[in-house]
User: Fold this.
Amino acid sequence: MRPVRVPAVASAVAALALVSGCGAAGGLESAGEAPSAVEPARLWPDLPPASAAPYDYGEGETARIPGITVPGGDVHRLDPVAVAQAGLKAKTDRDSGLDELPDVTVRQIRACRTAPDDCPVLAPYYFDLTGDGRDELVLGIRMPERQLALRAYRADGGDRGDRSDQGDRVGLTRIMSTSDAVISVELAGKDLILRAPSVISGYEYRTAWSWDDRQQAMLATRDEILRVPERRTGRTAPAPESSGSAALTPESSGSAADGR
Assistant:
């Protein structure tokens, strides 16, 4: 692809340069020709483009959770452990297999009622991830080797604008499913941010998951590797603000299995 000049941008930059320069007599003088804006150059333009992904990474995969109804479409009224247990039987709209949990974790989830101390389901979080004014349910499930499975669920009666919700009860759909050895999970705006360690010393991976209205699912819209700033000792992190980026804080201080 050939570079494309943008006269309007170049003129604006040149005008700014004229204003910023001063002549010897107090007048304005040019600071020189402004650089032109160019588009990225395409390498190997004759290479045929791929038409299909070579692997299914499970992106955009959703699943209806069997046996779970949401009273009034309010996910706050759900039992997180019951949701995690029912999710073991869920069938995804595709079959990537990436939503599957290790056998030991599956056994622990099934035994959450009888062995709550070993229950891997963490305390739930509630955020409006889709921007429709209603909270979604976010669950974390501990797995071996300090890995975490992250799940997000949405009350779904077909058309969420219909408040009748089929007798005030609607179904539940899993709109996000991923797992990693995470450093932390954070909320930034309406995005869920997963921070994971890198094999490169001093760097970490950060993946942002965002709601995609067309796909009706959370997608990994940004995946990057970043250098980690050096930690300074003797400083306390400021308290998070509701409008900024914050590490997730559960609605209740107890675990998801407490009292269940």
Summary: Helices lie at 7-20, 80-87, 103-110, 165-168. The radius of gyration is 25 Å. The first strand starts at residue 63 and ends at 71. The chain is about 15% helix and 30% strand.
